[in-house]
Amino acid sequence: MSAAEFKRLHGRAIPFNKTIALKDGLFEMVESKAFDRFLEAPLNDVNLLEFFHDGRVIASTADRSLRLFADSRGLNFYADIDASYGHENWHLLRAMRRSKPADQCSVNFNSMACISDVYLGAHRQRIVRARIDHIAVGVTGGAYGAATGVWTDGDEKDPASPLRIQEMAGEFQDGAATWPLREFIRRR
C-alpha cells in the first residue's frame, strides 16, 4: 500500500500492570508479559473493528494492515486503514474522539493463565498469559477506559487533543521504534 492509499491509526489497547475495577466488583490486572507468547506465535488473526465489538473490520493482522506490539506500558497497535474507508467515516471517528473520550479501545481477549489474589479486600485476577480476539476502536466505557487511546498521525501535536493522547503518542513512538527489530529477530 502506498501512503496515498491508507491513513494510519495508532493506539494503546491495554495498559499493563494497572488494576481496574470490573462491573461485578472484581478487579483485573494484565501483567506486562501476558501477550508475549501470542505475539511471538499468534493462535489466530486479530481484527480491528470500528466503534463496537460487532463493528466493521477496518484492519487485520491477516493482511498485515494491523500490527501489534507490547512495550513496558501496554499492548499497542498501529493500523493502516484503507482509503476506501471513506472520508465521512474517518471524519466521524475523529469527531467522536474530540466530542467525548471516544478515543478509547475495548479489547476482547481470552485469559489463558491467571493468578488470583486480593486487592483492596476484593478478588483480583492477574492475567499472566492471554490471546487477543479483536480490538474495537472509537468506543467509550471499555473496561480500561481512559488508560487506552486511539489517535491518528498528527493528533499528538494537535493542542485540541487530550493531554493523555499526546502523552501516549510520545510513549508509543519509543516502543514502536524497537518493535521492527524484535520482529526481525523473531523471524530469523
Give a description of the structure.
- The protein has 188 residues and is of the alpha+beta class.
- The protein has one domain (3-187).
- The protein is built from 3 helices and 10 strands; from the N terminus they run E-E-E-H-E-E-E-E-H-E-E-E-H.
- The strands form 2 sheets. Strands 2, 3, 4, 5, 8 and 9 form a 6-stranded mixed sheet that branches. The protein has a 4-stranded antiparallel sheet with strand order 6-7-1-10, covered by helices on one side.
- The longest helix is centred in the C-terminal third of the chain and has 25 residues, at 163-187.
Blueprint of the fold:
Blueprint (H helix, E strand, L loop, with lengths): L5 E10 L4 E2 L5 E4 L5 H5 L6 E4 L6 E4 L5 E5 L3 E9 L4 H13 L4 E16 L2 E18 L9 E4 L10 H25 L1
Parallel strand pairs: 3-9, 4-9
Antiparallel strand pairs: 1-7, 1-10, 2-3, 4-5, 6-7, 8-9
How many H/I helices? 3
> How many strand segments?
10
The radius of gyration over CA amounts to 16 Å
H/E element sequence: EEEHEEEEHEEEH
Considering the chains and any ligands shown, give keywords for the structure.
188 residues; six-stranded mixed β-sheet; globular; disordered C terminus
A few lines on this structure:
This protein has 188 residues and is α+β, with helices and mostly antiparallel strands.
